[in-house]
# Entry
Amino acid sequence: MTHLLLVGGAALVAALILVNLAWRWSSQRWQLPCPTWLAWGLSNSLADRLLATEATLDRLQLVPGMRVLEMGSGPGRLLVPAAHRVLPGGQVVGLDLQPGMTDRLLARAAAEGLQNVTGMTGDAATTEHAPVSFDLVFLSLTLGEIPDRDGALRQAWRALRPGGRLCIAEMFPDPHFVPQGSVRSLAECVGFVHERTQGRPWLFTARFVKPDGAREFERGMM
# Structure
């Protein structure tokens, strides 16, 4: 019996690894975000512990009055508590590819009595925001889901005020995991300056700043 359990456990692990690799390979060719029907798995205390929700929020350095944009906001695991942290006076905007995720974000915000949350449906690489209108743009477990990562980061650049910050959180074994070196390279190619990376190589948040003198560069890239 013990032998059968060990074999069964090994087979399950192997199957999970194969699924992870297949999803990762596929996501390099097609846009495969977390499906809406799995949103329930991102909205509970277990998910918060496994995905280090509180630590990530702390690393975003949220303060009252900030204007914040999350690309790939899903059902609001990070954005809804972020909305609480930027009160009074702060506003948060969540952008997601799937209308169902936007609906869940707004429903959760309403349930918590928040009036400073806006939900948008669209592609991070093509959806434009008012220029220089945000203090912080962040992506959590999302960058690897976006085929045009450069385009998404350019939209983040355009939306941020000079001196504003970009934060990118990643976690392995997320099938869309982007390692620290690649995250830094992608952000720096757009013009962001690396400020700090916190956490471990398999669970980290990288923080970048849009330099104060970035307007000339911005005009050159548009």
In short: The two ends are 65 Å apart (CA to CA).
